[in-house]
Write a structure and sequence with these properties.
The chain is of the alpha+beta class. 36% of the residues lie in helices and 33% in strands. The chain has helices spanning 2-6, 61-88; strands at residues 11-16, 24-29, 34-41, 47-51, 54-58. Strand 2 and strand 3 form a beta hairpin.
Length: 91
């Protein structure tokens, strides 16, 4: 998650607003209040995301995509390990 959050910078612009059309929704919990971050990838140079009341443009799409792919790969790996454990009958 730290890699995904760090990929959100540098910020080129920020405005108050909404982001209804998004590709990813992250829930970041640091402390008691979770932050919901909605991310819309545009191209390889920048993306738009909403965090709180503000919509930001900028970031590093390549780093963000790499972070998402890493998480997906790890989830697939864990699912495979779980399936092997369940089929072998081990607790």
């Amino acid at each position: 998650m730290r890699n995904l959050i760090s990929a959100l910078r540098p910020i080129k612009s920020a405005t108050e607003g909404s982001l209804d059309d998004y590709d990813f929704e992250l829930v970041y919990i640091a402390g008691m209040d979770p932050a919901v971050i909605k991310v819309k990838l545009h191209d390889d140079t920048q993306f738009t995301y909403k965090w709180g009341a503000y919509v930001y443009t900028g970031g590093s799409p390549a780093r963000f995509k790499h972070g998402v792919d890493t998480i997906r790969d790890r989830l697939e790996e864990l699912r495979g390990e779980r399936a092997r454990t369940e089929s072998s009958g081990e607790p």
